[in-house]
Design a protein that fits this description.
about 280 residues; alpha+beta
Length: about 280
């Protein structure tokens, strides 16, 4: 059951952290992780099987069929990860949730510059609790983190974690830009506060992206001139100037966000490729 133990360990790190997001319309999302949220994030409320641990849950009128109770039985009756992932509805959904779930993946998702407002459609969704969705396209999956709102505690909570081959469609057409993200990391020596000022970061990221595209274009022309035996001094100067511009922007961005974590995002693949090629020429971060 090592994999499930890892998920619990990773989530315990999230419980000790919290996040605040200021959106472009003035909305403030105060996101708090609690122990009770994990079973729902993993989709355990959907489990039903003839396996002895879950046989009691086959009665839909039995109010004990809740994610928390299922998770409790998994732990107390020592259900193995292999047994768990062999159950109905696990293969395509819960299995992916467990395998993709980690502190790094969740926090990385929350470092994004946009979020989407969720639109509840009764014919499509069972629950109407979701308010916002954070989405990242990673490899072949769309990673979704659905955020709900607790009216009693007056804070937002993680409702569901869903890696899927398809992007959620029940969203407002335009995303909400995040003005500022504040993440409170619990460390052994106290709370570490990470602030991401997206208003400052956005133009730096834009300049960096355009610089990488320009460099590739000019560099391709330079090599073509060389192969054709033509004068190259002008292009060589432009390549060097463009490279220095990119280096300045990388260094500038490194003061605003952890570069390695930023470059892990699929949308930054071209910048990551460039940085990996020339890492030894840039300043150490």
């Amino acid at each position: 059951m090592a994999k499930f133990d890892e998920v619990i360990s990773e989530y315990n790190r999230l419980i000790k952290s919290r996040c605040e997001f200021l959106l472009d319309d003035g909305t403030l999302i105060n996101l708090v992780f609690e122990e009770k949220n994990l079973p729902h994030l993993l989709g355990f409320q959907y489990l039903s099987d003839a396996h002895t641990v879950f046989r009691v849950f086959n009665d839909k009128n039995d109010r004990s069929v809740i994610a928390e109770n299922i998770m409790s039985k998994i732990i107390t009756e020592n259900v193995s990860y292999e047994q768990l992932t062999a159950l109905n509805k696990v293969d395509g959904d819960v299995r992916r949730r467990i395998e993709e779930f980690s502190y790094t993946n969740i926090i990385g998702l929350l470092r994004g510059i946009t979020t989407f407002k969720f639109i509840y459609e009764p014919k499509r969704q069972i629950s109407n609790k979701a308010r916002f969705v954070f989405i990242e396209h990673r490899d072949e999956l769309f990673i979704h983190l659905y955020i709900g709102y607790d009216k009693l505690q007056k804070n937002y909570f993680p409702l569901s974690f869903q890696p899927s081959k398809r992007k959620e469609v029940s969203l407002e057409r335009k995303p909400h830009y995040i003005i500022k993200t504040t993440i409170y990391h619990d460390k052994e020596n106290g709370v570490e506060i990470e602030v991401l000022d997206h208003v400052v970061m956005r133009p730096v990221i834009r300049d960096l992206s355009e610089g990488v595209k320009k460099y590739k274009s000019i560099n391709d022309l330079l090599y073509k001139k060389i192969s054709d035996g033509q004068e190259t001094s002008k292009f060589l100067n432009e390549v060097n100037e463009c490279f220095r511009f990119i280096e300045r922007k990388y260094n500038e961005l490194s003061t605003l966000i952890n570069l390695d974590e930023f470059l892990m995002r699929r949308s930054n693949a071209k910048m990551k490729s460039f940085f990996d090629d020339y890492r030894d020429k840039f300043c150490k971060h």
